[in-house]
Automatic annotation (TrEMBL):
Name this protein carries in UniProt: ABC transporter permease
Membrane-crossing residue ranges in chain numbering: 46-67, 73-98, 119-144, 156-176, 188-206, 243-264
GO molecular function, one term: ABC-type transporter activity
The family this protein is said to belong to: Belongs to the ABC-2 integral membrane protein family.
Membrane topology summary: Multi-pass membrane protein
Signal peptide as annotated in the record: none
Organism in which the protein naturally occurs: Sphingomonas rhizophila
Protein's GO biological process: lipopolysaccharide transport
Location(s) in or outside the cell: Cell inner membrane
Source organism superkingdom: Bacteria
Ranges for domain ABC-2 type transporter transmembrane: 27-233
Amino acid sequence: MLDRGAISKAHHGRGLAEWCRVQVDLVLALIERDVRSRFGETGAGYGLAFLAPLAWIGATYLAFWLIGRTSPVYADTITFIISGLIPYALFRYAVTAVGRARSLARPLMIYPTITEGHVAAAAAVLEFVNGLVLLGIVLALNWVVFGDFEMADPFAFLWGMVLCWALGASYAYALLSLSRINSRIQSIGLVLIRPTFFLSAILFTANELPERILEVLGWNPLLHAVEIARDGMLFHYESRVASAGYALACVAGLLLLAVAANAARRD
């Protein structure tokens, strides 16, 4: 159940600082509600939520082993997989979480101060926290089971994670907003990102690519974000193509598109 106190404050907020505080209170209340509804009251449900990404990493490692592929850089295979797959998983989970904001918001419309944007923001923040928890679990398992651990620049890796998350959240929010104009847009947009697992430097590095292929794949902002994260994790890798500015410009463009779509819908 949502905290009615947090909701009622939205009616009486005065000034920008108070307004911002109320919005944060609403988002935090929605996060608490989402955690309880998805994972239950105990930690067991929350822990089970990480089995799927762990299985994803295991399946990728098995695929590498079956085809005889090893790490293309001086790092063990598991660490190489983690360096690309964890940031990508954060992107995909942000897309999924924000994309279901409308269905989650419907039963909350009885509260006049809660909007679809609040629900989307709460879902995005929760997935970012989940991504950090997943990262900690995977790094710990890699160290305990295989004795391997790399984190060349934690801040650079975290920055790459933030960019992947922001790209996923902004893309999903843009689709959510555009779907108000045409309901099929969201379904089409979700289909379009399915190949990104194979096109975003998850299973390879951008440095490996021939120049003619990189000229095409380099338009993919997710590739840049993943490369920034990989650069931050691996000691012996330095991306020659990663651009945080390009990824940020794409995030800004997607958010502007969402704002324009929402404004057009209101008109």
